[in-house]
Write a structure and sequence with these properties.
about 60 residues, mainly alpha
């Protein structure tokens, strides 16, 4: 398995999984995700994160 290096300014998916987001103050969470509370992400940020992390979709499985 290969691992990609991410710039330090972007939170890796592994770090996101380890964060208890429900305990983080909203402004701090927004800052740590390099977003803006009023405007969200820029179009460029969206494109970069979509390429880096893929779509935010749940895949339905049988069951």
């Amino acid at each position: 398995m290969s691992h990609r290096s991410l710039p330090n300014s972007v939170v890796s998916p592994d770090a996101l999984d380890a964060t208890h987001w429900h305990t983080v103050e909203a402004d701090k969470a927004v800052r740590s995700l390099e977003s803006d509370r009023a405007n969200g992400l820029t179009s460029q940020q969206v494109a970069e994160r979509l390429q880096r992390y893929g779509t935010n979709e749940l895949v339905e499985t049988g069951g």
